[in-house]
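To: structure subgroup
Subject: Chain for Friday's discussion

All,

I'm putting the inputs and outputs inline so they're searchable in the archive.
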Amino acid sequence: MKTVSLMALAVILSACSGPPNIEAGADPSDAGVQVPVARYAPVMSGTVDYRPVDPKSWIERNEQVAPKKRGE
């Protein structure tokens, strides 16, 4: 019974303490902190055009993926 009351007292007292200070970088209120320059990047940069195109000749397609002959 004594250990249960001590545990309850420890839990109650730990709830009264504040959260620990977590510092993961520079203080946001410090005006002298160096920050990287924000660069503009267009939203559509690097996108691929997926519009329909005419099909290529199947002969050309097969020649592109076929194993090369020994003389070539």
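Points worth raising on Friday:
The helical segments are 2-16, 58-65.
DSSP finds two helices and no strands in the chain.

D.
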